[in-house]
Amino acid sequence: MEKEVPDMVGREELVKIVGSENVAEGSEALEEYASDSSFVQRIRPGSIVKADSAEAVQAVVKWANETRTPLVPVSSGPPHFRGDTVPGVGGAAVVDLSGMKKIMRVDRRNRVVMIEPGVTFGELIPALEKEGMAPFMTFLPRSSKSVVTSFLERTPITIPRHHWEAQDPLHCVEVIYGDGERMRTGSAAGPGTLEEQWKVGRAQIRGMGPSQVDFTRLLQGAQGTMGIVTWATIRCRPLPKVKKPFLVVNDDIEPLIDLAYKVTYRKLGEELLIMSDTELRSVMGKGRGANDKRKGAIPSWILYYSIEGDGFLPEDKVAYQEQESIKLARETGLELQSGISEVRAEEVSAVLSRPCPDPYWKLGPKGGHEDIFFITTLDRTPEFIRRMYELADQYGYASDDIGIYLQPTIQGCNCHLEFSLPYNPEDNLETAAARRLVERGAEALGQMGGFFSRPYGTWSRFAYDRQGMTVIGQRKLKDIFDPNGIMNPAKHCY
Fold first, then answer.
1. Number of neighbouring beta carbons within 10 Å of residue 31
2. Pairing verdict, β 47-50 and 23-24
3. Cα distances (angstroms) measured from residue 264 to each of 136, 155, 248
4. How far apart are alpha carbons 168 and 157 in whole angstroms?
5. Does the reported pTM lie above 0.85?
6. Cα(469)–Cα(474) distance, rounded to whole angstroms?
7. 400-429: b (≥16 Cβ within 10 Å) or e
C-alpha cells in the first residue's frame, strides 16, 4: 500500500532557486521514484528537483531545512534496484543530480579525474581515452549508472591488484551536508581554492583530511543520509597498450579460488573475477537457467583473468606475466585458455570494459531482478554458496536460476560475493519466493558471518542488530551533519 504524501510546502521559494522548469510535481514524474525493482515499500515523493550546480544544491538543502522537507539525492538514471532512491517518508523532494555532467579536470600525470555526480561510465571512458587513461570499471554497470555514486557506494572494481582499501578508487569530494554547510574533503580542503591548488601542482589525490579525520568515509555507503556530493576525484589508470585475456574453467570452484589467491599474492595480472556458468550466460546474452544450458557446453565455474602492459616494453611485461600465470595454473591443475566452446576471452573482455547497453543485462532473463551481496573471504565462499542453494530450496526459489559473481577485493584479502536472483514480476509465486530469499535468506547468510557492508532495505535491520555501538556512533554523527534529519530519512539505522 502506498503511503499518503502531504502537500509540499514552500514551493514558491524552491522555484526561485532552481526555476519552475526544474521542479516536477506531475504524477508521471513522481511515479518513476515511488518504487524501483526492489521490494521496499512504495512511497511517492512530493516533487522532483533538478539541480545543475553545487550552489543550487546548497540552496535546496537550506530550503529543505527551513521547510523540514526530506531530501533524497539521486545521481543515476533508471532502472534503480536497491530501494535507496525510494523515499523512506512521505512528502520528500527527490534531488536529481543526473544533469550535473561536467568532467571538471583530467590529470594525466597524477592519474586522477574530477567529475560531477551525473557523469556515467559511458561518458567518462571516451574523455579519459583522449588522455591515454581508463577508469577502474565495476562489473558491467548499467548505461545510466553514475560513476561517483558507484564509488560512494563502494561497488567493487574488477582489478583487485589496484584495490588497496575499501575507499578506492575514490579520493576527495565536495559535499553539501544536511545542515547546508559546504565542505571539501581530503587534500581538496585546502589551503586555497581548487584553481590555486592546481596552479602549484596539487591534484586532490589524498582522501584523508582535513587533519586526521577521513570525512570521505562518512559519506561512503551512507545512501545519501549525510549530505549530497557535488563532485569527486576518482583515481584512474593508464590505458593499456597490450591486453591478453584468459578464461580458466572447472566444474569445482575450489581450484579457481586457489589460483586467484596465488595470482593476487604475486601481484600478477589486472582484471580477475569468478563467475558461475549461469552468470556468464546472462552477461554474454546466451540464455540463463537449467533449461537454457547445453550439458557440458560451459563448465560450472569460470575465472576471467587479463594481463595488460603499458608504459615501456608492454609486450615484455605481458609475456613474463603470462608465463608465470601458466605455471601457477598448472600447479593448481588448471589451464589458461583463450576461450571455451561458446565464449571467447576476448568477447568477455570487450563486454566487461564498457557499461551495459540497454536493456540492462540483469533484467533480461525474466524482467525482474534482485541481488544478495556481502563481503567475506574467498576461502569461505564455497560454504556460503552451498548454504544459498539450501535456502533457495527452502523458500521455493529455483536454485538453477541463481547467478554467482565473486570479486576479490583489497588485493585478494577479502571478496565481494554476489548472488543474482532473476524472477518474473507477473508470477506471484515466483516473486514471493524471491522476496523471501532476499529478506530471510540474506539474514541467514549474515548469521553465518557474511558482512553486509552496504545494508539496503530490510538488510539494515539485521546488519545493525548486533552493532549497538556502531548505531550510537552513527546517530551522533547524523545529529552533527544533518541535525534536522532531512537527508534520506528512514534509511540505515536512522
1. 12
2. antiparallel
3. 17, 19, 15
4. 9
5. yes
6. 9
7. ebbbbbbbbbbebebbbbbbbbbbeeeeee
Q: Is 190 helix (H, G, I), strand (E, B) or coil?
A: coil
For residue 105 the three cell numbers come to 579536470
Decide: 237 and 133 in contact? Cβ < 8 Å. yes
Question: What is the rounded distance in angstroms from the CA atom of residue 221 to the CA atom of residue 255?
Answer: 33
Closest listed residue to residue 4, CA positions, set 31, 48, 49, 42: 42
State how beta strands 301-309 and 368-376 pair.
unpaired
Q: Are 95 and 110 in contact (CB under 8 A)?
A: no
The dihedrals phi and psi of 76, each to the nearest 5 degrees, come to -90, 155
Range 361-457 has CATH code 3.90.640.10: no
d(CA 41, CA 2): 7
Give the HSE-up count for residue 178: Cα atoms under 13 Å, Cβ half-sphere.
25
Cell (9 digits) for 309: 602492459
pLDDT tens track for 27-78: 888 999 999 989 999 999 999 999 999 999 999 999 999 999 999 999 999 9
242-352 shares its CATH topology with 361-457 = yes
Q: Which amino acid is at 400?
A: D
Return the CA Rg of the chain. 23
Predicted local confidence at residue 9, as pLDDT: 64
The residue ranges of the chain whose pLDDT is under 70 are: 1-9, 287-297
Q: Is 140 left (phi over 0), alpha (psi -120 to 50) or beta?
A: left
Fold of 242-352: Alpha-Beta Plaits (3.30.70)
> Which helix (H) or strand (E) is 326 found in, with range?
helix 314-331
Any idea what DSSP says for residue 156?
P
How many residues comprise the chain? Answer: 494
**Residue 438 has what pLDDT?**
95
27: DSSP letter:
H
Q: Is 392 left (phi over 0), alpha (psi -120 to 50) or beta?
A: alpha
What is the distance of C-alpha 474 from the center of its chain? 22
* Beta-strand relationship, 272-276 and 403-409: antiparallel
Between CA 74 and CA 152 the distance in angstroms is 12
Q: Where are the domains of the chain?
A: 11-96, 103-238, 242-352, 361-457
Fold classification of 103-238 (topology level): 3.30.465
In whole angstroms, what is the distance from residue 118 CA to residue 96 CA? 9
Q: pLDDT value at position 5?
A: 42
Write the DSSP string, 165-185. STTTTEEEEEEEETTS-EEE-
Phi–psi pair at 461, nearest 5 degrees = -60, -55
269 CB-side CA count, 13 A:
32
Query: Under 8 Å CB-to-CB from 20, ≥6 apart: which residues?
Result: none
Residues 11-96, CATH architecture: 2-Layer Sandwich (3.30)
The amino acid sitting at 493 is C
